[in-house]
Each structure stands twice: as structure tokens, then as C-alpha cells.
Design brief:
This protein is an alpha+beta fold and 524 residues long. The protein has helices at residues 2-14, 49-55, 66-71, 73-82, 89-129, 139-173, 211-217, 240-257, 272-278, 306-314, 370-388, 435-440, 464-474, 489-492; strands at 193-198, 221-222, 236-237, 262-264, 269-271, 290-291, 300-302, 317-320, 326-335, 353-363, 393-397, 409-417, 422-431, 442-445, 451-453, 455-463, 482-483, 496-497.
């Protein structure tokens, strides 16, 4: 009896007046932070495919490391401003403010839900103790019912507020980039640090040709008269050119499978949530991602790298401890919009579609060094393959503005391309730490059964068109033929690429100075 009456008293004392919570003061201005999310793809408030994916029940919410953002805000701001993304210092401060308000709302919800349970216990105790006909005349019963209604009303307000703040939080916080390795150079691509030079530049006793000239002469590549067929920046590979693509793919796949990589074929079309979880924005202004017609195929886009497809495979799954690190290799066709049409308008260097062999690793995070070691392993494999192709190249430690949102550290490899008389990027490798795994729920299961966020690492094993450029321009001869690197000869079945015995096609379409006559009408 005393216990039940004490319960009534505590509930009554706690709920005498339900006041709105005192708003936690944010140390920074919050102008505009709580406006409804805008639909414009160029705004910070653009819809989040990943958040919508979560709300529809397909995945758990991304568990972002907000402790670091709140406790080391100045450090996070410096990192954001050193990157090339759309967020700025005020956005980081807004993220902190929204998060703090969200936590305050959740704390009040938790307290009121506990009080709601106390009131239910109080009402139940009074009902069990008294005759039902007398309940309406008992002050403690009517007061408890009244306060219960107040709690429910307040909770309904707070639930709506929590939903609003939660959406605003993820709308901005998901765009935060990964932190940067302390040794990463700060600045744009001109600040890239050369880590290693491998091999020697080829020497010629003639002026080296570009890959497109060589490719056309040898019947390997066609890029002319395609605007009305497949559009700008498209190409055909034919004969030894097509065989060269297949040879490079098989060479890279064999090399990596011998090292324990599991081969995989991945979808080319994926949902926006997977892109966003990888740190890409398919709906952003000037996106490099091709999106399918939303009226027919809502929220589907073409992947620009096999990394997205492999990451999607591991999404919402846990890897067994005994299998770590998981090394995956995939061969896929990649599609990139290349909206900056003023650069590399001809040739195979910057095209809308190409085949690529991609390495992807999932590793543990016990010492904090596992993913760094895996990245070094991937870069070592890249070097092994490019050296086997007898290329001269350099390894670059890329600066902050070239990391992209997901990378903690990134190495690029640039091969010397004599026809261009410059180095050109042929691969990259990134340590994304837990950036992608926290967004995509990629975990590993320890031996004791507990779950931990994994680290992910990705690297290009062979981007076919650019590797073809480097091979053709490096191994060309004065006669216009191309020596095939020894490691590639078993795959290509050739030691030298020569002009084919068949003739090139003759263009007979319009828009030429002298056009051959059309066929005469057929007589019957």
C-alpha cells in the first residue's frame, strides 16, 4: 500500500507542470538550420537517398561518429575546408547544433517515457486498490489520468520534433568527409607528393605518336563519326584492340586471384543509397553519375566504378572474423558523365564508358592499422602489374582536395605517356577507414560474437583505356607497330601488334567534301 501511494506521489510531484524543455544554447548562429529540407539538388538540403532508404526500413541508420565532430569541431572544420566538397565551416557548426538539439529532445523523450510508465503503474495500482465505481471521485486517479494525457501530448510533439531534427541532421552530416591522414599534403593536385618513381622513360629516335593515331593506323580504335551513333567521348575497340582489352582484364584477374582475391561480377545499376553510402552524390549538381529516367526507373544510376557494386554486396552484412581481410576483385563496365567537356575531348583518356578491374577490401579495426596495411598491399600489387607491363610510372600521395569525401588517404599512380609527353593517371587506391562501413552497415563479427564496424579499402587494378594508352605509346616502334609486353603475350597471343590484313571501313555518310554517289535504283 505504501509503495503504491508513494508511486502516486512521485508521479504527481514530477508532473505537476509539464513545461517545454529549456533549449540548449548553441555557441554558433543557427540561422536557417531548421528550415524544411529543400528539393533543389544544388542545395545542402538536397534529399538524401540513404536516409530515405533507412526510413523505408531497408537498413539501420548510419551510425556517424558525432563525438569527434562535437568535441573536435575546429579540427573537423579545418578538414572540411581543406577538401573540395560543398560543406563549409558554418555547415559544420550547424551540424553540431542540430545534433545537440536532437540529443536534448531524445533525453526529454526518454524521461517522459519513463514517467509515462510510472503513471501507468500508478493508475493500475489505484484501480486494483479501489472499487471501479469510486474511481471517478478519487483525486489521485483523476490527476494521474490528466497528467498522463499531458505526457502523451508532449511526447507527440517531441516525436514530430525528433523526426524533423533527425532528417535535418542526416541531410547535412552524411555529407561530412572522412578525416585526413596527418601526412596527407594540404591543397590542390599541384601539391601531390611523389612517393616513388619506377622504371625509366622510354627513349625514341623518332617523334612518338599519340595513342589515337597509332590506334587508328593499326585498326584498334575508332572514335570518328560516332556523334550520331553513341555520342561524344565514345569509342570502338576492334581486332587486336578488343583482344588487348580482354588480355588486360584476364592478366589482372589472374594476378589477383593467385593472391587470394575472390572474383565477383557486380550490377552496373544501383540504388542512390549505395552511391551515397560510398561517399558519392548521384543527385548533386554536375554529378559524374548517369541516372536513369526516374519516371521509369526511380532511384537507379549507372556505376562509375566497381567499388559501388562491391560495397553494395557487403551492405547490411557482417564478415566472419576468420575471413578477414576479405579481398575482392571485380570486372565491370564503368559509366561517367565527364561533364567537364573542355578536357581531353579526343582519345581514350577521358571517356563515358570503359572497363575496369577493381580491388576492394574489407578488414578489421582492432589496432587502427589494418586498413593502412591493406592499402599498402593493394598499391604493391598495382606496382607489380604495371612493372610487368614494362611501364614507367610514379606513385603520388594525393593532397586533401583530391581525396573525395570517403578517403582517409589516397595514392594515385601516373604512367608516362610519350604521345601526350606527360604523366597520366592510370589507377588510384584509397583507404576509406570506417567512412563507408558506418553508412552502409558493413561490419565484422569478432570471435566472441560482438559486432564492429569494418574498414574498407579500394584500388584500381587496371583501367583498360588508360592502360591501353600507356602500352601503345610506350611500346610503339618507328614503323608504327607496337611491341607487346612479355607478361601480356600469353593473353594476347601476339608479340607485336601490326596493321591488320583487312581494310579499314570507308565513311560514306554526309558532311564530307567529296561524297561518293549513292547506289543506283535497282532495276527489275
Amino acid at each position: 500500500m505504501a509503495t503504491r501511494m508513494g508511486m502516486v506521489a512521485r508521479a504527481a510531484a514530477a508532473l505537476t507542470v509539464l513545461k517545454p524543455p529549456v533549449r540548449r544554447r548553441c555557441p554558433w548562429p543557427r540561422t536557417g538550420v531548421l528550415l524544411p529540407l529543400r528539393s533543389s539538388s544544388s542545395s545542402h538540403g538536397a534529399r538524401s537517398s540513404l536516409y530515405e532508404h533507412v526510413r523505408e526500413g531497408y537498413s539501420d541508420k548510419p551510425e556517424l561518429d558525432m563525438r569527434a565532430v562535437c568535441e573536435e569541431t575546429d579540427k573537423v572544420i579545418a578538414n572540411v575546408e581543406g577538401r573540395k566538397g560543398e560543406l563549409r565551416a558554418d555547415d559544420v557548426r550547424a551540424i553540431v547544433c542540430v545534433w545537440q538539439e536532437l540529443q536534448a529532445v531524445r533525453a526529454e523523450i526518454s524521461g517522459l517515457e519513463e514517467l509515462k510508465r510510472d503513471i501507468s503503474d500508478t493508475v493500475r495500482a489505484v484501480v486494483n486498490k479501489n472499487d471501479k465505481k469510486a474511481l471517478a471521485n478519487l483525486p489521485e486517479y483523476t490527476q494521474a489520468l490528466h497528467r498522463g494525457r499531458e505526457v502523451r501530448r508532449r511526447l507527440n510533439e517531441l516525436y514530430a520534433k525528433e523526426t524533423e531534427l533527425d532528417q535535418q541532421h542526416y541531410g547535412l552530416a552524411l555529407k561530412l568527409p572522412n578525416s585526413s591522414h596527418p601526412d596527407v599534403p594540404i591543397g590542390d593536385e599541384s601539391q601531390a607528393r611523389v612517393v616513388e618513381l619506377v622504371g625509366q622513360k622510354p627513349e625514341f629516335d623518332f617523334k612518338p605518336r599519340g595513342h589515337l593515331e597509332l590506334g587508328e593506323e593499326l585498326g584498334l580504335v575508332r572514335q570518328r563519326h560516332l556523334a550520331h551513333i553513341s555520342g561524344h567521348r565514345s569509342y570502338y575497340l576492334r581486332g587486336a584492340g578488343a583482344r588487348l582489352q580482354t588480355a588486360l582484364q584476364n592478366f589482372a584477374l589472374d594476378t589477383l586471384q593467385r593472391r587470394g582475391f575472390i572474383p565477383m561480377v557486380v550490377p552496373d545499376m544501383l540504388k542512390g543509397a549505395v552511391f551515397e553510402g560510398c561517399g558519392m552524390q548521384p543527385n548533386a549538381h554536375r554529378s559524374q553519375v548517369y541516372s536513369l529516367d526516374p519516371a521509369r526507373f526511380p532511384d537507379l544510376s549507372l556505376a562509375g566504378t566497381g567499388e559501388v557494386g562491391v560495397a553494395g554486396y557487403f551492405m547490411d552484412h557482417a564478415v566472419n572474423w576468420a575471413d578477414l581481410p576479405v579481398r575482392t576483385v571485380c570486372s565491370s563496365t564503368c559509366y561517367r558523365a565527364e561533364t567537364d567537356t573542355g578536357r581531353e575531348t579526343w582519345g581514350l583518356y577521358r571517356v563515358h564508358h570503359f572497363n575496369k578491374i577493381e580491388m576492394f577490401g574489407v578488414t578489421a579495426d582492432e589496432t587502427g592499422e589494418e586498413s593502412a596495411q591493406l592499402l599498402e598491399e593493394f598499391v604493391s600489387l598495382q606496382k607489380e602489374m604495371f612493372s610487368a607491363l614494362e611501364l614507367h610510372y610514379r606513385v603520388l600521395d594525393m593532397p586533401t582536395q583530391e581525396l573525395g569525401p570517403p578517403a582517409y588517404r589516397k595514392y594515385d599512380i601516373e604512367a608516362w605517356m610519350p604521345g601526350r609527353n606527360s604523366y597520366g593517371e592510370i589507377s588510384s587506391g584509397s583507404n576509406c577507414t570506417d567512412y563507408q562501413s558506418r553508412r552502409l552497415n558493413i561490419l565484422y563479427e569478432r570471435e566472441d560474437g560482438s559486432l564492429q564496424y569494418a574498414h574498407t579499402v579500394n584500388a584500381t587494378a587496371c583501367a583498360i583505356p588508360r592502360t591501353i594508352i600507356a602500352i601503345l605509346e610506350t611500346h610503339q616502334t618507328k614503323e608504327g607497330t607496337v611491341h607487346v609486353p612479355r607478361a601480356l603475350q600469353p593473353y594476347l597471343g601476339l608479340e607485336v601488334i601490326e596493321k591488320p590484313t583487312y581494310s579499314a571501313l570507308k565513311y560514306i555518310g554526309p558532311n564530307q567534301h567529296i561524297r561518293p554517289p549513292r547506289p543506283a535504283p535497282k532495276t527489275r
